[in-house]
Structures are given as C-alpha cells and as structure tokens.
Write a structure and sequence with these properties.
single chain, alpha/beta, Rossmann fold
Length: 197
Amino acid sequence: MSLLHRVKQNFHDSIETKQLAVRALAEPIEAATRLMLGSLKNGGKIMACGNGGSAADAQHFAAELLNRFEKERPPLAAIALTTDTSTLTSIANDYRYEDVFAKQLQALGRHGDVLLAISTSGNSPNVIAAIHAAHVRGIRVVALTGRGGGKMTALLKEDDIHLCVPVERTARIQEVHLLTIHCLCDGIDALILGELQ
C-alpha cells in the first residue's frame, strides 16, 4: 500500500463511519441539543470534561458556546472542566486524578445544569466520577463515547442521553465526536435564533 492510498483510505473510512453514525446518533443529538438549550434558557450552564483529545473537544465545545459558533448571538454559559491547571494539579496531587472533574462539579454544578462527559472508550475513571457527582447534584448527563460506551453506559440514568459512535477505532470515534459537537452548537444556535422550532 502506498502512502497516497493510505491517506485516501483514511478519508474513505471516515466517510463510512459518519454514514454509520448518522443513523445511530441523529435523534439522540437532537434530544441532547434540546436538553442543553433548555438548561441554558433556565439559567443553567453546560460543563464539559474529558481527557487528551476529549479534553480538547470539551474546550472546543465550551469556547463555541461561550464566544460564538458560526453566527452572532449572546454568549452562552459553558465551562470546560479541563482548563484550570492549578485546580487540576492540586486535586490530582492532594487527592487523586480520578477526582479532578468530580470536585469541580461538586463546587460549580447546580440542579438543572448539563454535563457533557466525553470518553472515547467510555471507561475513563475521572469522567465516570464526574457522572456520579453530576447525578448527586441533579445534573443531567450527555455522554459522548464510542466502542459500545464502556462502563459509562451502565451509569447513565433514563433521562440522560448517550451519544455512542458505533465503531472501535479511536481516530474515527474522535472525528465523529467533533462533528457531534458542531451539530450541538449549530442546533443550539438555530433554535436560539429562531431558525428552527
């Protein structure tokens, strides 16, 4: 296989994954969008967390809401729980790394907020701890996963929403995660701006 063929194969695989994902995710993404918008309209906020590439996705999502996505609209309340290095390192040092998001949720989360919990495998211990902390505070969870959802699947309550990319390969899951985040941002904006009902 040539490098050129490998590049083309990656594009083909990404397209195929997105075609699979749209069938599995379109309706849950719509539900997640409406859940998040309802929280924002009622004075709530969206908090997002994840590790590695998922941390970058959490930050990307929060920035798109807090600043803007593609159209002008008022700033929306969103926080990436992945960005405060002093908080993250003090919790990890004084307690354990598994608590870095949960402790922030305990301090900042309020009933009616929404947590976007991102984990490619669905098995990240600190994201799992964040889900537990969210439930204690009456915060609904939108879980963004892949690979069948891992351990996070069993933790989700009936009124939570699971967006699980139906493939195993990390790169393909992450590509759909980014598209999903853009769908959420686009949907929230379209509903706020009255383009949709």
